[in-house]
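INTERNAL AUDIT FORM
Audit reference: QA-55
Scope: verify that the stored structure record matches its stored sequence.
Auditor: D.O.
Record contents follow.
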Amino acid sequence: MSENWLFDILQAAAVFFLNPLFWLILLVAVALGYMRVKRERKDFNIRKLPGLTELRRLVADSWVHALLLSVLLSGIGFVADAGWIVLFSIVMIIVLISFYYQWGSPIYTAAIAFFGLAAWQKFGGSFSVHGWSLQDVDLLDQLAVTIPVIAGLLLIAEGMLIRKSTVKYASPHLEKTSRGLRAAVFKVKKIWLLPVLLLVPGDMISAYVPYWPQFTLGAESFSFVPVPVLIGFSQIARKRFPDELFPKFGVLVIWTGVAVTVLAFGALYEPMIGWGALVMGVLLRSVLTLVTAVQERSGGYAASPSAKGVVIAGVLPGSPAEKLGLQPGEVIRAVNGMQVANDKELYDAIQVNAAHCRLQVADRNGEVRLMQQVLYRHDHYQLGLLLVR
């Protein structure tokens, strides 16, 4: 008996870990890290973060959000549909392999799956598999509330992740300006994995895995289905610095998610309000993406070459530069009393004193401050800076 129980638990775990979407997300996270490192080394001859950072932070940044979503949705009793989950996963796979993560918000994938299910029901004819029937799906009943609420909550989670977990991952790279110079832009191309448990009516899993969590309410049975939810984000900060742009952008996404969630509850009285909540969420999230992209493309560059010194494009984690509190966009005017105009002069000046490094730095507002950092014997040749050059 115990052996059968263990085997059933392993089968249950396989529902999530053998999901092709799960493995694709892992592979793409590795690919994103590889492409980022390749780009950074091409521009700066060094990478800012290790190549496996995207993979290591795939769930580390988002597991709390996934847990809260699972508890909240299950506790309230929102029931999803097996067909919608399948379409939702297919849409996420398409987004994942396209690498266009500016359209990787869950409001898009959830809405496409919902309206795709509606179109399939209207034009696709009869269809059933393993006890699930297309004709049994009622998109003007509970699903008109459930799917928009799920989409709204996922949108809130997306906003929180953007606000808290994008600034440190912003990757600098050099771009030619209209004047033929090279300025720094900051690119975030990030995916997160949220392992979310959703309630599904019927015996979608328990029919094959007897010990999978299941309960009955009246004459109907329900199962918990683990779904790997993808959240993709891609944005370039050109006119503003990452710490100025992304936290504000994340807050706007959060408020969009709140609006979608609140409006979705109106479907309890009129189902079409839930449909409208999804459409509104798609439109608002699209406007945020497009308006931000247009704003960042207009005007000048936040980190462009300066005649007054060397402009910082990035700071390596754990480096002397980070200990000094240097930030992208600041200008190093002098090192150890020597004026510097390029990276060679900077590092030549650092080697003047192998024990201490004294800097004259102008911040983003042009205010000058002096700072000093003790350097170790073997790393006095570098501060850990990525420079605009």
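Auditor finding: record pair retrieved intact. The domain at 310-387 is CATH 2.30.42.10 (Pdz3 Domain).
Action required: none
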